[in-house]
Amino acid sequence: MKKLISLILIGTAPILFAQVGINTENPKATLDITSKKNASIIEGLLPPRLTRAELTEKGNTLYGAEQDGAIIYINDASGGNQQSQREYIEGKGLYIFDAEASNKEGRWMCLYCYAVL
């Protein structure tokens, strides 16, 4: 029985430490996405898209220390509010969650945002 368990553990070890590659057989990082280089294919990475109103509905405690570094795209900042974690969400753009900000309450910070008109 011990030998069987040992064989199973040895066989699954490479899977537990594997890197993931999309369009590549030899990933060079934890997640490696390689372009298909085909002119007729739309390429890119789409993060989760939310409105500020949808983020407001999630409240001020859902995102915490374990979500430090989470990235979202706000596609409409006209609804919801700018209270607490959403204080700096003023317009469309990419935002990253900084769990250490504001006495460890956390804040969404702009990575690349469009000017508010």
TrEMBL record:
<protein>
    <submittedName>
        <fullName>Uncharacterized protein</fullName>
    </submittedName>
</protein>
<feature type="signal peptide">
    <location>
        <begin position="1"/>
        <end position="18"/>
    </location>
</feature>
<keyword id="KW-0732">Signal</keyword>
